[in-house]
Amino acid sequence: MTEPRQQALEYVRRNRDRFLEELKDFLRIPSVSTDPAHRADVERAAAWVAERLRAAGAPHVEIMPTDGHPVVYGEAPAARADAPTVLVYGHYDVQPPDPLEEWESGPFEPTVRGENLYARGASDMKGQVMATIAAFEAVARSGPLPVHVKFLIEGEEEIGSPSLPAFLAAHADRLRASISLNPDAGMIAPDLPTITYGLRGLAYFELRIYGPAHDLHSGLYGGVVHNPAQVLCELIAGMHDAEGRVTLPGFYDRVRPLSEEERAELARLPMGEDFYLRNTGAPALWGEAGYTPVERATARPTLEVNGLLAGFTGPGAKTVLPASAMAKISMRLVPDQDPDEVYEQLRRYLEERAPRTVRWELIRMAGVRASLTDRRHPAVQALSQALEMVWGRRPVFKREGGTIPIVTQLQELLGVESVLTGFGLPDDRFHAPNEKLHLPTWARGIEALTLFFYNYGG
């Protein structure tokens, strides 16, 4: 190991306790982005990040306004002009802590119990932001930077990043980079370093079915007027066939098939049937025939009903034929699927299947493309080597079933790919009471990120 690398790792180990105390200070700020009552706290968190970047060694840091909460931007040049540029993405906002009564300690009173640090934002993602800043500081204090480093730390991720696309477009030249490092993806287990190279996209809709002009007495009109709730249920039931495949016309036309090599890599993940049964409490699994559970959950497209509403749902009985019914429907998309095309596919399905006894309305609510990073990208390889050096084992590569809009936005608006990792664990309870961060994994993560900067620059 070269001298600057060793010096940087020793710096991390000497300052680990200080980094933890600084993270606790960060976590004490209730930067809940969705609540206007916390706007001053959100701004305080942005100021904290900016000051911490300056202290870490970034010579240029500024808090930049958006239509919503501000973005913290920082720059630190490498010793070599031709060195690659790493754009570090993160967010300093957090979810609301409710329900408060379920917390064992205050959500904004960071508390260590055993090997875990408990607080809102500990894992998602203030702990990950602090890990990246700590790694950057260690490298900056141990000699010339091997890569140009830029920071983009936003304050609206937990509300869907509504101001970010306009910000990226307005500052595209400043944000150009060779790769984006995004530590918001997490690990499968403490002993299993993980790189996420694929994210599914999202298409979200609200489907409304209208029947009579008002609710009707089901005894007087049942069997005469078509019940919108029944129509909705039948339409939804027809959206999958007996093999678990989505039946929308053309839905699979653009779906990129999984290669045998990629299926073999996904098979390395300890995420078999037992994993999903244990983590869900479901009596049995279900899904598209011909694919393993992890393939269905991360690399195949899906259609899910997220909510249903119709008629009388209170306690007791009320014999009503509802005037309308509504369903929330989401689809997770894979590479090459287009949210606009999926919308048209759903419209065609409804045009073909919906009876003339009702009218319907389809509302588009969200659309994000899937993303896929080449596992042979030099930055991915640099991170893989860094994780293996710290953990002593080759990392696993996984696709994530969810969606991180910033990854697609950076691809489409700036042409910048992302390498995703992170040191949160599946049981960290992010977005739930008693959110936690596993401190030994976090400490290893700081060392791995430190080595990543050297590997990618070297």
Automatic annotation (TrEMBL):
Question: Is the keyword Signal in the record?
Answer: no
Q: Which UniProt keywords apply?
A: Hydrolase, Metal-binding, Protease
Any one GO molecular-function label of the UniProt entry:
peptidase activity
Q: Name one GO biological process term.
A: proteolysis
Q: Which SUPFAM superfamilies match?
A: Zn-dependent exopeptidases
Please give the InterPro entries that the UniProt record associates with this protein.
Answer: Cyt/Met_Dipeptidase (IPR051458), Peptidase_M20 (IPR002933), Peptidase_M20_dimer (IPR011650)
Domain Peptidase M20 dimerisation stretches: 197-357
Please, which domain of life does this record's source organism belong to? Bacteria
Alphabetized Gene3D superfamilies for the sequence: 3.30.70.360, Zn peptidases (3.40.630.10)
Q: Does the keyword Protease apply?
A: yes
Q: Per its record, how is this protein called by name?
A: Acetylornithine deacetylase/Succinyl-diaminopimelate desuccinylase
Q: Which organism is it from?
A: Thermoflexus hugenholtzii JAD2
